[in-house]
Write a structure and sequence with these properties.
The complex is a heterodimer of chains A (about 250) and B (about 300). Chain A is α+β, with helices and mostly antiparallel strands and about 250 residues long. In chain A, α5 packs antiparallel against α6, α5 packs across α8 and α6 packs across α8. Chain A has three domains: about 100 residues, Roll (Ubiquitin-like (UB roll)), CATH 3.10.20; about 90 residues, Alpha-helical ferredoxin (Fumarate Reductase Iron-sulfur Protein, Chain B, domain 2, Orthogonal Bundle), CATH 1.10.1060.10; about 35 residues, no CATH class. In chain A, about 40% of the residues lie in helices and about 10% in strands. Chain A has a five-stranded mixed beta sheet with strand order 2-1-5-3-4, with helices on one face. In chain B, strands 2-1-3-4 form a four-stranded parallel beta sheet, with helices on both faces. In chain B, strands 6-5-7-8 form a four-stranded parallel beta sheet, sandwiched between helices. Helices cover about 45% and strands about 10% of the residues of chain B. Chain B has 14 helices and eight strands. Classes of the chains: A alpha+beta (about 250), B alpha/beta (about 300).
């Protein structure tokens, strides 16, 4: 009997949304969404991730920073009456009436192993590690799938001709969600190609900035050695005091 | 003339000497080749399968870029584009023809590429060589400052520039466009009976022996006719005829190396545009000793 009461309480609590903090009775606008084929009515204005949690799903994966940076919460959806298969990050996109949703928590993708110091800075490096880029038919599906609005197909084309700078620039905002790779008919793992290209460009393509060189020289000359020694010698109380008094950016 | 230019992937990697020399030579002739923004690989090989529309999307997308350039005034030609690589030329011209002649295919591709403006079906794909021919070879002669006197060139055409007939830029049985160009540059022309024999193309990847045999035939026949060097407009032919000479020498001990020029390298040389514009250092068989022996360098 006691157990049953608890369950009833849990159900009652679930109606009072944890995510919205508002009693469901006070919510005026509702939308219908379908999560993996099952219909739910959720408050309008929630993100897909919040809506799923409202509906009772618990994210033990496919969620990370909840701020659009980590790329963990890839989502695919179609809206009722539309042929377009859409993509989104669940933490960044609000639910709309008639969405048919599924999470893509993981994109099976091959990732090349390489020693960046031994790779030649040439088009052949990208083709050797990811030969499937030559299968690109320029269908542009990857670009359409990218929730970051990157020109994914264009950077794969840049990769084909060894233009590291362009690949690095065009793929810079990639959050590795994997939606491009999941959608690609040529089975390319675009996001890993972009990562290799950015590493190569960083190492071989970019010139080392003067200020970085000057900073490294300062460090080598022991500019902070004295401070570090002080910290290492300090006891716990002293460290706590210094931590509380540290300079920090506003939250 | 200011015309959209489609480079293709090889011209940015293994065939930079074709691009660098062709751009310089064209500029000398008053042809400004404006590289297309956001071009993509042409698809490499034109698919002959009747229902394989997906493999024409790449080419058609490039044609849309040309259409945009014509509309936004970044060039002064209308619905025309120029290519340098024979393979890209053939693939894109074939795709352009297919969608021009098959309205249903065009509709299907346009509907698939729903984030692009509709392709109007009107773009004309040209090879630089035909633009030069249509200008008149006398215009070429007029720019020559260092005639290629005494240099015996055997023009080679391969497949993609001249076949099939409705795509090619010259008589598929007896092409002469190269010979006419090099004559205008002051070179001596040697007719090679193997000038339109296939170099083996992509067999070079998995069936090297076929390529070695074909390239050996092409090169030795040119030599037997008195040719000192061979010319091409195709990066794949260039690889098979030039780089594969390493393997030919290993198989045929009597074989003597022979320089393989891009047509445009001979133009920059004859126009006196300097060695930087010729990029001979990128050729596998170094043509400079031959050119020095002819007092051309």
């Amino acid at each position: 009997m006691e157990d049953k009461k608890d369950i009833m309480q849990i159900i009652a609590d679930a109606n009072k949304s944890v995510t919205t903090g508002i009693d469901s009775a006070d919510i005026e606008h509702w939308v219908w969404i379908h999560i993996m084929g099952r219909a739910y009515q959720v408050p309008a204005g929630l993100t897909i991730m919040q809506a799923m949690e409202y509906a009772g799903y618990k994210f033990i994966t496919s969620a990370g920073c909840r701020a659009g940076f980590c790329g963990a919460c890839a989502t695919m959806y179609r809206k009722e009456g539309e042929y377009k298969l859409q993509t989104a990050m669940a933490c960044q996109t609000r639910v709309e009436d008639g969405m048919f949703l599924v999470q893509i928590p993981f994109a099976p993708a091959q990732e090349a192993t390489y020693d960046i110091t031994k790779e030649p800075y040439a088009a052949s490096t990208l083709l050797e590690h990811y030969p499937e880029i030559a299968r690109c038919v320029a269908c542009n599906t990857c670009t359409k799938a990218c929730p970051q609005d990157l020109e994914v197909m264009d950077y794969i084309q840049d990769a084909l001709r060894g233009d590291y700078k362009k690949v690095a620039e065009r793929s810079f905002d990639c959050i590795q969600c994997g939606l491009c790779a999941v959608r690609c008919p040529a089975e390319i793992t675009q996001f890993n190609v972009g990562m290799l290209a950015r590493r190569m460009y960083g190492r071989y393509g970019m010139t080392e900035p003067e200020y970085a060189k000057a900073r490294l020289t300062e460090l080598d000359q022991g500019k902070y050695d004295k401070e570090f020694k002080k910290l290492l010698a300090a006891d716990v109380e002293e460290l706590k005091k210094r931590y509380a008094a540290r300079e920090r950016e506003a939250d | 003339m200011k015309i959209p230019y489609y480079p293709g992937c090889s011209l940015k990697t293994s065939a930079k000497n074709l691009e660098v020399s062709a751009l310089a030579a064209a500029e000398k002739l008053g042809i400004e080749m404006v590289e297309m923004p956001r071009w993509n690989c042409c698809g490499t090989v034109f698919s002959l399968t009747s229902d394989d529309l997906m493999h024409h999307v790449a080419s058609v997308r490039n044609l849309v870029r040309v259409q945009e350039m014509s509309e936004n005034g970044s060039v002064d030609t209308t619905n025309k584009m120029v290519t340098l690589c024979s393979m890209c030329f053939n693939t894109m011209k074939s795709a352009a023809k297919r969608v021009r002649e098959n309205a249903e295919d065009l509709v299907k591709i346009n509907s698939f590429m729903d984030t692009e403006p509709d392709y109007n079906g009107n773009v004309q794909v040209l090879h630089l060589l035909e633009i030069i021919r249509d200008m008149g070879f006398d215009k070429v002669s007029a720019k020559v400052t260092r005639p290629l006197e005494g240099l015996k060139i055997a023009p080679y055409y391969g497949c993609m520039l001249i076949r099939p007939k409705e795509i090619g830029i010259d008589d598929p049985e007896d092409p002469t466009i190269g010979a006419q160009l090099f004559k205008a540059l002051g070179a001596e022309i040697v007719d090679n009976p193997f000038k339109k024999v296939c170099c083996g193309a992509y067999h070079t990847v998995h069936n090297k022996d076929t390529v070695i045999e074909l390239a050996h035939d092409i090169l030795t026949h040119a030599q037997e006719e008195g040719g000192e060097a061979i010319s091409t407009s195709c990066p794949l032919c260039a690889f098979n005829l030039d780089n594969r000479q390493k393997e030919i020498k290993e198989k045929y001990l009597k074989f003597k190396e022979m320089p393989v020029f891009y047509f445009s390298q001979l133009m920059t040389l004859a126009f006196g545009l300097g060695e930087d514009a010729c990029m001979f250092e990128a050729n596998y068989v170094d043509p400079r000793p031959l050119l020095k022996s002819k007092n051309l360098l």
